[in-house]
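Extended Data, panel c. Modelled sequence:
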Amino acid sequence: MASYFEIDFLCVGERQSGDAIALRYEHNGATFVHVVDGGFQPDGPHVMAHLRRYYGGSSVSHVVLTHPDGDHAGGLRTVLEECEVPRGGGLWMLRPWLYAAELLGHFARFTTVSGLEKALREAYPDVAELEEIAQRRGIRIYEPFQGAKIGAFTVLAPSRARYLELIVDSDKTPRQAPAASMGLLGQFQGMAAKVVSYAKAAWGIEIFSTEPTSVENEMSVVQYARLCDEKILLTGDVGRDGLSEAANFAPVIGLWLPGIDRFDVPHHGSRRNVSTEVLDRWLGPRLPQQLPEGQGRFRAYISANPDDKDHPRRAVVRGLIHRGADVRQTTGERGGYLRTSKNAPPRDNAVPSEPLPYPEDQEEK
């Protein structure tokens, strides 16, 4: 049983949102420090400064890259260059090129495994760069597939089989020649798609996007741990399919749903990553009315830059509050953080966050 834990959701990016999480806990008499994602590349020094200031140094037990997007992977370059990884720790990330031999038949342009490996490395440059740094520094790399243990955390998704399917489905995969430019019409349509309208909605009404999140987001490593009798779920940018796969696996490790105490909201609060059904399964059904302030049944944390106009989506905040959540969002400038803890050492300069209010309107379809 853990004697304490502290989890810090760092504010990363400038006007765009990314993810960087630092956490420390004591488990079975040993202290562990994890870094889960590192934000954009300029955020790396801020992650290391946070570790040195609040966690007493640069020793990191485990570094986890949830998926290959640059707003999660970029800052880990600095972390891997500067952190000290003790024996038994390492870097946890998935590298598509390791599975080239199995996937070769899905890529008509390639006749050799080595050719596909090279193409996949070029398609995922951030992951390839992290691999190079880890190998140069002698940091062991592990595969975070479903069932893997990362300290006190267990990986709930993705399974190996589903991950291989996602590689094949990804737009990054080199199955065909690169698509032609969108042109002016395509660019205009892309801009128009960002226009969002809002409508008033009564308590309990939920409208989520009918579009799925990206294939790369669905590759996200979903991690669960029970620390100090608190059930903690870290999700990266995972989508509905990944959350469903994770929920299917949960009983295997004795996690009976619904019921999470500290919920890391996926993809900065995007409404393409969750649904009413998914939230019901993980967090429980909608309540008949809003709980009084300070009486939330669980806490939900959204890594979204305060200057990001697209995140979090109001429908997602509503959906969380419908199920009794106390919802918090990262605030402040780059390098600031949102903290959740239990029995952890106090911080004199910790700034308490305020729960997000219930939105009276939400995005329309």
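Residues 125-137 form the longest helix (13 residues). This feature is highlighted in the accompanying rendering.
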